[in-house]
Amino acid sequence: MPDRVVYLVGSAAPPVRDLGTLIAHLHRVGWRVCVFATPTAATWIDADALTEQTGFPVRNGQPGAEPVVLPDPDLILACPVTFNTVNKWAAGISDNSALGLLNETFGFKVPTYAMPYAKSTLAAHPAFAESLSRLKSWRVNILPNELVRPAEKKDPFVWENLLDALPLMGHTGDFGKPDAGA
Question: What is the pTM of this model?
Answer without folding.
Answer: 0.90
